[in-house]
Specification:
By secondary structure, this protein is an alpha+beta fold. It has helices at 3-13, 19-43, 79-96, 101-115, 142-145, 148-157, 176-184, 196-206, 275-284, 298-305, 316-322, 379-384, and strands spanning 258-261, 266-269, 329-330, 340-344, 351-357, 360-364, 372-376, 387-392. It has 12 helices and 8 strands.
């Protein structure tokens, strides 16, 4: 077939010749196109998730703890219009987390004091954003903190080892300014209270219902000591030990863990984040809100969910044996919500996930490499051909 024949055939396929031939060649072109798509699907499969090397790599305060979708909501217009827009964004995050309107008011008062409710790209030391959170203290990268939705979610749910409002015991009963201070650790806590009346007025303009009911969860966890912006001292980076694993945060007996029971035994937990707050954190950081930095980091993820920097153990299977034998529930399929579930992936690393209840777990890699998703607990067996080992309470002996 010479060049003219090729051109003529192409014209036929695009309908520029007689109608009968147009239909014929269009059908051929469509068939070729569909076959091409089928072959492409067979030859170039979607990314394959794997638990081949699920380790406790890296600290929970780096970019891996990021949550918000890329691209922040940057308001425009006059200062007042921007403040109204940011107030709506903050409230939308509170609504998503099923928090009451009181949580929104606390966040608005905090943001007004920290940044005059503006999405600042500067501040004291490395503080940025609505709440003047610091990248060097584990609140995320500068770009992430500059996303108002991400920053608001950090304020409510915490980030890495940093406390959020939901981590504060009885925060809904505390004076508004006191609750704000417990998250921010400001050098001037007396300044938050003065913003209550203006923020109530702004919320009304923004259509925010501050009387909205909602759920409250979390236990008392002291926020990192800081002068402002939710930071925790002057150390910007966690030092790593010889294993490349960041030292755990200091929880000890003063942690917020509460108790955990299998119906027969009850254990006292010492995690920085309570079970209820950990489950809420895991749900808020999964699916479309997950970032892509969790690949092969299942054990690190479970530790971060409970507020630690890292578990202190290299592999998920090793962590199972690190937990006291009396706490291990070999092959048991009925863990309480908040438990840690383990699988033998036929690799020394194994896999671990956080059980959320109703046969659902929060896990990395199972649907998308590097992301956190909520899936049925049996997917690791059907998709990865893994063998279920059992569950334990959410304890991290090496991290405490």
């Amino acid at each position: 077939m010479d060049g003219k024949d090729v051109a003529h055939t192409a014209l036929k396929a695009t309908g520029l010749v007689k109608k009968g031939l147009q239909l014929k060649f269009s059908a051929i072109a469509l068939a070729v196109f569909v076959i091409g798509l089928m072959l492409l699907g067979l030859l170039v499969p979607a990314g394959g998730a794997s638990a081949a090397s699920c380790t406790d790599a890296g600290a929970g305060t780096d970019d891996s703890s990021a949550v918000s979708p890329a691209g922040g909501d940057h308001a425009s217009g006059s200062l007042h219009k921007k403040q109204i827009s940011y107030a709506k964004t903050i409230d939308s995050v509170a609504v998503k987390l099923k928090l009451p309107g009181r949580a929104t008011l606390i966040a608005l008062m905090t943001a007004m004091q920290e940044s005059t409710l503006q999405n600042l790209d500067h501040g004291d030391r490395d503080s940025v954003g609505l709440f003047q959170q610091r990248p060097g203290m584990g609140w995320g990268t500068k770009a992430q903190i500059m996303d108002p939705a991400y920053a608001a979610q950090s304020f409510f749910a915490g980030r890495g080892s940093n406390s959020g409002l939901m981590d504060i015991a009885n925060w809904q009963k505390l004076p508004l300014a006191t609750a704000a201070q417990k998250v921010q650790g400001s050098a001037h806590p007396e300044l938050y209270a003065g913003h209550e009346t203006p923020m109530r007025k702004l919320a009304k303009e923004a259509g925010v219902n501050l009387n909205r009911a909602g759920k409250s969860s979390g236990s008392d966890k002291k926020a990192p000591a800081a002068n402002e912006g939710g930071g925790g001292g002057d150390t910007s980076h966690s030092k790593k030990n010889a294993c490349g694993v960041a030292p755990p945060s200091k929880g000890g007996s003063g942690g917020a863990g509460g108790t955990f029971s299998d119906g027969k035994q009850t254990w006292t937990l010492h995690n920085p984040r309570s079970v209820a707050a950990a489950i809420a954190w895991a749900k808020a950081h999964a699916g479309r809100n997950s970032t892509k930095n969790w690949e092969q980091r299942c054990l690190a993820y479970t530790a971060i969910v409970y507020g630690w920097h890292a578990s202190g153990v290299n592999y998920a299977r090793d962590h199972y044996t690190t937990v006291p034998k009396s706490m291990r529930h070999d092959k048991d399929r009925k863990p309480p919500p908040g438990a840690l579930m383990y699988w033998d992936t036929h690799h020394p690393a194994g896999h671990i996930a956080v059980y959320l209840g109703h046969n659902k777990v929060a896990s990395n890699d199972i649907l998308r490499p590097g992301y956190i998703d909520i899936v049925d607990a049996d997917q690791f067996e059907t998709k990865w051909n893994a063998t279920y080992m059992g569950w334990t309470p959410p304890v991290f002996p090496k991290a405490s």
